[in-house]
Design a protein that fits this description.
Blueprint (H helix, E strand, L loop, with lengths): L7 E4 L6 E3 L5 E4 L7 H14 L7 H10 L3 H8 L8 H4 L2
Parallel strand pairs: 1-3
Antiparallel strand pairs: 2-3
Helix pairs in contact: 1-2, 1-3
């Protein structure tokens, strides 16, 4: 994608699919394994774009659009992404 990042870690966040730190470290939620590939791809691009813009400004969304022109549909769909994660995953 041509976007810089430092390191990637896998975690089990309760409310986020992923995050990006100011050090360009990206943390991915292991629950992404249950999502359709196109949504996972969107999450990856979204976080990689945060390595350039640490906000959701117009410049950030332009960059997302440059990397994935059809991102808007995925952006809307990811909000319901938790329905793909089986209940047993959260069982303690």
């Amino acid at each position: 994608m041509g976007l810089p990042f430092n390191k990637i870690s896998i975690r089990g966040q309760k409310t986020r699919w992923a995050s990006c730190s100011t050090h360009r470290d990206i943390s991915l939620n292991y629950k992404l394994l249950f999502l359709p590939p196109e949504l996972v791809h969107y999450v990856f691009i979204h976080e990689l774009c945060h390595t350039i813009h640490m906000n959701h400004s117009q410049a950030f969304w332009r960059l997302v659009g440059d990397k994935q022109p059809n991102y808007q549909g995925h952006r809307n769909h990811i909000r319901d992404g938790w329905r793909y994660v089986p209940r047993w995953v959260e069982a303690s």
